[in-house]
Design brief:
single chain, 2 domains, three-stranded mixed beta sheet, about 20% strand, GTPase_Era-like, nucleotide-binding, P-loop_NTPase
């Protein structure tokens, strides 16, 4: 997975690095900054979670400036994704780095992503929003089955939230299956807003040991 991420950095025209202001700036942050050191002309840093009582955005900013000394200070932003504050300057900075090109698709073309990929991303987003402190990068979604029913008015989806260890499976399910139910219900609500038909979601949890070392899974997750 790290190799795929590093290859993506080489290809990217703009790189947005989000840092958690509520946790100490440590080895993980330094390692990422080392990867970005020769790409500082394409980097934007977002210091996130400034709404947290534990946030130290000023100290985080100093740490970033030390680790990336050639990064312009006006490309370091403080924001709160939770409160939706400070987002507009980040978007403006991203647009300033991205060259405008010819249209690849018609203007009324909503997305080129396959349906199963979009469904998986929505489910994963709902899961991560509830589990970001426990297992933010250790889960993926496997869409096992999709079937259109009722003359095209209803889409039935069977999906698995996949984790790496049995202990993580219990976290995702939650006490009395409350957490997995909440993920399913909220995912279903979001899916019904997107698709022009009713969506019925059957969501379960499965252990897939060391999935981050499996090329087949990574290609599916990243839509290679």
């Amino acid at each position: 997975m790290q190799l795929i991420a590093e290859n993506r950095l080489q290809e990217a025209e703009a790189i947005l690095y989000l840092i958690d202001a509520a946790r100490p700036f440590g080895e993980e942050e330094l390692a990422i900054c080392a990867l970005l050191k020769d790409k500082q002309n394409r980097v934007i840093v977002g210091i996130n979670k400034t709404d947290s009582p534990a946030a130290r955005p000023g100290q985080t900013r100093l740490n970033v400036m030390q680790a990336l000394p050639d990064l312009p200070q006006d490309r370091i932003f403080e924001l709160s994704a939770q409160e939706k504050t400070g987002l507009e300057p980040v978007l403006a900075a991203l647009f300033s780095l991205l060259p405008e090109g010819d249209l690849l698709y018609p203007e009324d073309f909503y997305t080129d992503q396959p349906v199963d990929f979009r469904i998986a991303e929505i489910i994963r987003g709902q899961a991560i929003s509830r589990l970001y402190e426990e297992i933010p990068h250790a889960l993926y979604v496997d869409i096992q089955d999709m079937e259109m029913k009722k003359n095209g008015k209803e889409l039935f989806v069977r999906a698995f939230l996949c984790v790496e260890r049995e202990s993580q499976k219990a976290m995702v399910i939650g006490k009395g299956a409350a957490l997995i139910k909440a993920i399913r219900v909220e995912s279903q609500k979001e899916l019904r807003k997107i698709f022009p038909y009713r969506v019925q979601l059957d969501l379960q949890v499965r252990v897939d040991k060391n999935w981050r070392q499996k090329d087949r899974v990574l290609q599916a997750v990243l839509q290679e």
